[in-house]
């Protein structure tokens, strides 16, 4: 059976991301920009292949996210390339037990959900006409449905049931619900035809390319249950046997911590579910490498209650060692770095103007923590770190270095750009 119970059990099947090929950037007129982006594409795929070679060395079956050859598949309605490549499958997926959680086929078309909920904080949100309204209403309705009935298809009867619970929902400690008119909510619910966020939504345009096709096909061929829910992400979930630790990844979750915790506990009744307040994606902050060992940017006292008797190795932020990045922070607002392009102002302006949504604040991440355990004796790491390597030696772990060179541009380490689909092992109870 395909499953993941502990995030350091022997890895057998793993999804690996993919970037756009160099040809994707061939239409850029400015040669200084075009050549830099083409080099970025070539070197990124080279590093992916090194990672794949290492995984296959350990007999891991590798599945790749898909990219389209048609640039228009990544354009929004205004003809702007809005969708970044599917670099980090972990950000939207998680194998928990024998079920795989992933986005539905139209997830890329969803409006920015955070902005949607922020708009709902206003007492009288002005709904736009046409497809934008339909998308917003469908996504919002499904969000409510997931809070109350996680994993259940939103049938007509389910919609009616949900609407009947409007008054109950208004009494919940959800800030944005207080400003929603009951009539408006009714329209929202009735408009929805999805079984999860991003799945089977009937949009008037289907431009977006579904990057998960090959992975989805493999899962279906192996009879793996799939739940389409992009809020279940192993970038912010630690799977430790009977215990699941979810961190509140974004502002939506922060506004609704109690509701999300209830949702997770309903989804996983056979686990002890814990909510953890960690900034950003948790795998850039801490990682359980094997039973009894955690590497983290936080000191040990932060873990003494959650992980008693586990050794915690505190890793300092290594950004001070990346001087070229620090030198160009004023130019790129501290977001990203491509080695050798520190003085390429044309590239900096291009990314700031057209690809600003591709890059986040890489400075917030510590990629030495973002490792990929192959099993409890082997772990793929980005490079040498004396504290981590000393701890590995004490615990009998062999590090395998795979340098993902452009992690400072993509804001993704080795854990981010993968998603473990099957790890060999039964569920354990690591704590009584």
Protein architecture, described:
With 432 residues, the chain is an alpha/beta fold. It folds into two domains: 11-102 and 208-423, L-arginine/glycine Amidinotransferase, Chain A, CATH 3.75.10.10; 113-191, no CATH class. The chain has 14 helices and 15 strands. The chain has helices spanning 31-57, 113-120, 131-148, 156-164, 166-170, 182-191, 213-221, 251-255, 257-267, 323-327, 329-332, 345-354, 386-394, 407-410, and strands spanning 11-16, 61-64, 94-96, 99-102, 226-228, 237-240, 243-247, 272-276, 286-290, 293-296, 311-314, 372-375, 378-381, 398-401, 418-423. The strands form five sheets. Strands 2-1-15 form a three-stranded mixed beta sheet, with helices on both faces. A three-stranded mixed beta sheet has the order 3-4-5, with helices on one face. A hairpin with a 2-residue loop joins strand 9 and strand 10 (293-296). Helix 3 (131-148) packs across helix 6 (182-191) and helix 4 (156-164) runs antiparallel to helix 6. It is globular. The model is unreliable at 108-132, 172-180 and 188-207 (pLDDT under 50).
Features:
single chain; 432 residues; alpha/beta; L-arginine/glycine Amidinotransferase, Chain A; 2 domains; three-stranded mixed sheet; 14 helices; 15 strands; 31% helix
Radius of gyration: 22 Å
What is the percent of helical residues? 25-40%
What structural class is derived from the secondary structure elements? alpha/beta
CATH-level-2 architecture of the largest domain:
5-stranded Propeller
Overall body shape: globular
Name the beta content range. Answer: 15-25%
Distance between the termini: 26 Å
Compute the number of strand runs: 15
Tell me the domain tally: 2
- Highest-level CATH class of the largest domain: Alpha Beta
Low-confidence spans: 108-132, 172-180, 188-207
Number of helices: 14
How would a textbook summarize the main sheet?
A: 3 strands, mixed
At the fourth level of CATH, the homologous superfamily of the largest domain is: L-arginine/glycine Amidinotransferase, Chain A
* Strand line-up in the sheet with most strands: 2-1-15
Named CATH topology of the largest domain: L-arginine/glycine Amidinotransferase, Chain A
């Amino acid at each position: 059976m395909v499953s993941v119970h502990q995030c350091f059990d022997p890895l057998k099947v793993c999804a690996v991301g993919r970037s756009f090929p160099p040809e994707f950037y061939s239409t850029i007129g400015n040669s200084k920009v075009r050549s830099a982006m083409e080099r970025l594409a070539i070197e990124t795929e080279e590093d992916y292949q090194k990672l794949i070679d290492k995984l296959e060395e350990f007999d891991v079956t590798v599945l790749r996210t898909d990219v389209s050859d048609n640039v228009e598949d990544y354009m929004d309605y205004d003809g702007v390339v809005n969708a970044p490549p599917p670099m980090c499958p972990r950000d939207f997926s998680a194998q928990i037990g024998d079920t795989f959680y992933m986005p539905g086929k139209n997830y890329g078309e969803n409006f920015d959900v955070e902005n949607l909920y922020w708009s709902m904080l206003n007492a009288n949100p002005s709904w736009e006409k046409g497809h934008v309204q339909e998308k917003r209403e469908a996504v919002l309705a499904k969000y409510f449905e997931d809070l109350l009935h996680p994993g259940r298809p939103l049938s007509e009867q389910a919609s009616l049931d949900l609407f009947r619970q409007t008054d109950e929902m208004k009494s919940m400690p959800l800030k944005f619900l207080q400003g929603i008119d009951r009539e408006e909510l009714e329209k929202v619910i009735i408009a929805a035809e999805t079984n999860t966020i991003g799945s089977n939504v009937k949009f008037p345009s289907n431009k977006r390319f579904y990057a998960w096709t090959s992975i989805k096909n493999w899962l279906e061929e192996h009879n793996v249950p799939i739940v389409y829910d992009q809020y279940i992400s192993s970038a912010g979930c630690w799977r430790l046997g009977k215990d699941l630790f979810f961190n509140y990844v974004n502002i939506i979750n922060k506004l609704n911590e109690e509701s999300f915790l209830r949702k997770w506990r309903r989804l996983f009744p056979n686990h002890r579910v814990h909510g953890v307040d960690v900034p950003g994606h948790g795998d850039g902050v801490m990682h359980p490498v094997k039973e009894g060992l955690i590497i983290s940017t936080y000191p040990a006292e932060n873990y003494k209650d959650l992980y008693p008797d586990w050794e915690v190795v505190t890793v300092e932020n290594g950004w001070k060692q990346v001087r070229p990045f620090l030198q160009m922070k004023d130019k790129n607002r501290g977001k990203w770095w491509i080695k050798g392009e520190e003085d390429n102002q044309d590239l900096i302006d291009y990314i700031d103007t057209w690809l600003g949504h591709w890059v986040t604040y890489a400075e917030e991440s510590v990629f030495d923590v973002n490792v990929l355990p192959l099993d409890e004796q082997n772990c793929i790491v980005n490079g040498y770190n004396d504290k981590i390597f000393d701890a590995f030696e004490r615990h009998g772990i062999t590090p395998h270095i795979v340098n993902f060179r452009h992690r400072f541009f993509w804001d993704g380490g080795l854990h981010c750009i993968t998603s473990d689909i099957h790890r060999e092992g039964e569920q354990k109870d690591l704590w009584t």
